[in-house]
Amino acid sequence: DGGITQSPKYLFRKEGQNVTLSCEQNLNHDAMYWYRQDPGQGLRLIYYSQIVNDFQKGDIAEGYSVSREKKESFPLTVTSAQKNPTAFYLCASSQLNQPQHFGDGTRLSIL
Amino acid sequence: AQSVTQPDIHITVSEGASLELRCNYSYGATPYLFWYVQSPGQGLQLLLKYFSGDTLVQGIKGFEAEFKRSQSSFNLRKPSVHWSDAAEYFCAVGARSSASKIIFGSGTRLSIRP
């Protein structure tokens, strides 16, 4: 079945540590996205990419970085500069001008 | 600026009762509109979308939504809810020039009373 796989499902970060969240899709979608979800705030866009080797900042990119070296992969790194990283992170993909499909998310917590 | 407002943070309805979740948007032109549903600890699933044409759109799981341009609304409805409908519901709006990038409302949590 085609879909989006996010791993791990749960992740813990120590102070001063960078962590990378994985997102892989086999839907052959051109565009991929990362969102952060906090209680009561809906989804906020961190980064998005509409084509391989290109990506743009979303509304809350500070403290995060991404890469898009392959069409099917869009990893997100939460750096130590992100002072409040505890959240639920969702990856999505779509064809241009089509609805987004979502993975099952990664919950990041601070130790 | 684009925005989406879901005025109801939490709604409780009885099983078998009808449901309407409100969504209002602010946008300079006719947007693309979506409703997504999220179960706890899960990703979002698309319920339905409006791109053009008939303003009453049918979705999965018996849901429908109506686009009302004059009211800038896209309310979600279901004639009879089931206990399995308990979840968080998100309305979203996208630009026709770049529907891939969309803005989400803050969500409405639906609880079902037995």
Helix content of chain B: under 10%
Work out the strand percent of chain B.
Answer: over 45%
The oligomeric state is heterodimer
Mean pLDDT score of chain B, rounded?
92
Shape of chain B: globular
| Spatial gap, N to C terminus of chain A | 35 Å
Strand fraction of chain A equals: over 45%
Name the biggest interface. Answer: A-B, 27 and 22 residues
Alpha-carbon Rg of chain A, integer = 13 Å
Residues in helices of chain A, as a percent range: under 10%
Count of beta strands of chain B: 12
**Which stretches of chain B are poorly predicted, pLDDT < 50 over at least 5 residues?**
none
Notes on the structure:
The complex is a heterodimer of chains A (111) and B (114). Chain A has 111 residues and is mainly β. Chain A contains no helices and 11 strands. Chain A is globular and about 35 Å long. The model of chain B has no long low-confidence stretch (mean pLDDT 92). Chain B is mainly beta and 114 residues long. Chain B starts with a strand and ends with a strand. Chain B has strands at residues 3-5, 10-14, 19-21, 24-26, 32-38, 44-50, 56-58, 64-68, 73-78, 87-95, 98-104, 108-113. The interface between A and B is medium-sized, with 27 and 22 residues.
Layout of helices and strands:
The complex is a heterodimer of chains A (111) and B (114).
Chain A: E1 4-7, E2 10-13, E3 19-25, E4 31-37, E5 43-51, E6 54-57, E7 64-66, E8 76-78, E9 87-94, E10 101-102, E11 106-110
Chain B: E1 3-5, E2 10-14, E3 19-21, E4 24-26, E5 32-38, E6 44-50, E7 56-58, E8 64-68, E9 73-78, E10 87-95, E11 98-104, E12 108-113
Parallel strand pairs in B: 2-12
Antiparallel strand pairs in B: 1-4, 3-9, 5-6, 5-10, 7-8, 8-9, 10-11, 10-12
What features would you highlight for this structure?
heterodimer, A: 111 residues, mainly beta, 4-stranded antiparallel sheet, 0% helix, 50% strand, B: 114 residues, globular
In short:
The complex is a heterodimer of chains A (111) and B (114). By secondary structure, chain A is mostly beta strands.
